[in-house]
Structures are given as C-alpha cells and as structure tokens.
Amino acid sequence: MEMWYTEVHTDEVKWSIKVNKTIYTDQSVFQKIDIFETNEFGKVMTLDGLMMVNEKDEFIYHDMIVHVSMATNPNIKRVLVIGGGDGGTVRELTRYETIEKIDMVEIDELVVKASIKYLDYTANKLSDERVNLFYEDGIEFVKGLKNEYDLIIVDSTDPIGPGEGLFTTEFYTNCFNALSGDGILVNQKESPYYAHNAREMKRSHDKLKEIFPLHMTYQYHMPSYPSGHWLFGFSSKGLNPIEDLNKDAWNALGLKTKYYNTDLHVGAFMIPNYVKELLNEK
Ligand code: SAM
Fold it and tell me: Which residues pair with 53 in a beta bridge?
C-alpha cells in the first residue's frame, strides 16, 4: 500500500510526496512533529503537517537565510536565531570563524531533540562551543534587550500558532532595540504567490518598513514550499545589502556553497513587478 505525505497549499491546491516510512511522530505542547523517509526528498520534517525541512532543498533555504547578511557585514560577531529548530541556520553560521556567539531560541525542545536524533544533515553543528540553546518563546526573549546582537535571524514557522507573534510590530521593535548600530534582521517573509502567503508577506513588510531605516526583500527558489517562490526580508539600521556587499572579501573566505554566490546575492534582490506592486515598492 502506497503512503503519501500531502500538504494543502490552498483550498484548490495540494502537493504530495511518496513516503517509504514514518521515522518519528510525536505531539509536543506546541505542535505535531513528523519525520518521514522519502526517495525524492530524503528525510522530511513537518510540523502540524506543514513542510519544514528536507534533505533535498534545505541547502537553498539555509544558504540564503545566512550568507546574504554575512557577506554584507563581515564584522558580525553576536548572532541570535529565533526558531531554527532543525539546526540548519546554525550550521551555516558556524562556518564563520569571526562569529563569537550564536544564541538559538527555539520554543519547542522536542523539535531540536528530534532533529539531533534524525536530521544530522541540519543539526550536526548544534554542539559547536559558540552555540547556546534556549528553549523559550522568542517573543519574550527579545523584550528589553539593548545592543546585544549584530544579526538576528527569524527562522520561524508561518504566522500561526507559536509563530504568529513573530510577525508583530512589538516583536520587530524589540528586535530593532536588541540590535547593534550596524545591526541586521533577516526574517522568513513567506511568499508572494498564493493569497494567504502574500497577505502575511505584506503584513510583515509594512511593519518592518515602519521600524527599520532600510528594509528590502530578496527571493529564492524553494521547490518544497508552496509555489516555490519564497522570500526573506533584510532589515538594517543602515547597511545596504547591495551597496555594502564586498564580493572579493566574501569570496576570499573560500566557503563552498551549493546555492549562494555573490552574484546571486545581488540578483536575489531584483524582485518581479507583481511582487513590487504587492509591496508598493518602486
Ligand atoms: N525552515 C522552516 C520554515 O521556513 O518553515 C522553519 C524552520 S524551524 C523548524 C521553525 C521553528 O520555529 C520551529 O521549530 C518552531 O518550533 C519555531 N518557533 C515557532 N514559534 C516560535 C517562537 N515564538 N519562539 C521560538 N521558536 C518558535
């Protein structure tokens, strides 16, 4: 009997992957956690039935959530990751010797434990001596912080359940205050393609535009996410991800990446007209 994992993208669209077997399934206080073994996407983790991470295309997401800001500001030393329970974002950050501290605030300890046990491909650097794990709500964690971090990466689920508060003005303002003078915030910014994702994209965009002197949108192709056209937000207190990019300096680091490169870094910010219109960008 064939087994399939199906994600509902809209009321009219479903997306399925054939599953060989279920490796892990549990219900935490926050969400249902499933890990499947598949031929096409390798090991797949879903939370409440939504695709989170898989072996086949996680490199795209984790390259783009980390290297754009690191190539814009090579002086980043103190990093906060909010969410990121599978460990992939932390894995890419640990490749920079210049980074001194990585605090990862993940609300659900069960996600981290399952990732360490079954998803070594993303969780294999969580034991790096610079990494501090906090099993807390990121919304509470940033309250009252001042000039604590040079980079904050919000690697969250969609704005539902525990993730909802990570898309609010209060949370973004607290992140602004927690950042240093050259601070950068990167946020998971959903997608322009399906209506409900586009609504969340716009919601976070309008708030960040109000709070940060600079807020720009960059895109990446993510086959396993609804429509494949997904975005990150780049917000800063002054640094510009295109004007302040030093290609030669980043390339001299000799970091081997499967998706990111310094040409694509610039191209990712060249967004389609329909997305510009949705975001009221010129
Ligand atoms: N790459 C995935 C994506 O784009 O959907 C997200 C990676 S990671 C699995 C997302 C994590 O955010 C989950 O482990 C979830 O538990 C965590 N999370 C959700 N809300 C949170 C909150 N308020 N504070 C901290 N972590 C949160």
Answer: 45
Closest listed residue to residue 63, CA positions, set 277, 279, 260: 260
The percent of residues in the chain predicted with pLDDT above 70, rounded, is 100
Confidence of residue 160 (pLDDT cuts 50, 70, 90): confident
Let me know if domain 3-54 sits in CATH 2.30.140.10: yes
Contacts of residue 71, Cβ cutoff 8 Å, sequence gap at least 6: 245, 246, 247, 250, 262, 265
Q: Which two structure tokens, joined as six digits, stand for 243?
A: 């004007």
DSSP reduced 3-state for 167: helix
Q: What is the pLDDT of residue 282?
A: 84
Q: Just list the catalytic residues.
A: 155
d(CA 218, CA 60): 13
Burial 161-199 (b: 16+ CB within 10 A, else e): ebbeebbeeebbebbbbbbbebbbbbbbbbbbbbeebbe
pTM of structure: 0.97
**Tokens standing for residue 103:** 């605090």
For 67, the enclosing helix (H) or strand (E) is helix 58-72
Query: Which listed CATH number (3.40.50.150, 3.30.530.20, 1.10.260.40, 2.60.40.10) goes with 58-280?
Result: 3.40.50.150
The full set of domain ranges for the chain reads 3-54, 58-280
- Minimum CA distance residue for ligand 1 atom 27: 83
What is the per-residue pLDDT for 161?
A: 81
Q: How far is the CA of 105 from the centre of ligand 1 (A)?
A: 9
Distance CA 282, CA 279 (A): 9
Ligand 1 pocket mutation pick from 24, 48, 157, 222 by most atoms within 8 angstroms of CB: 157
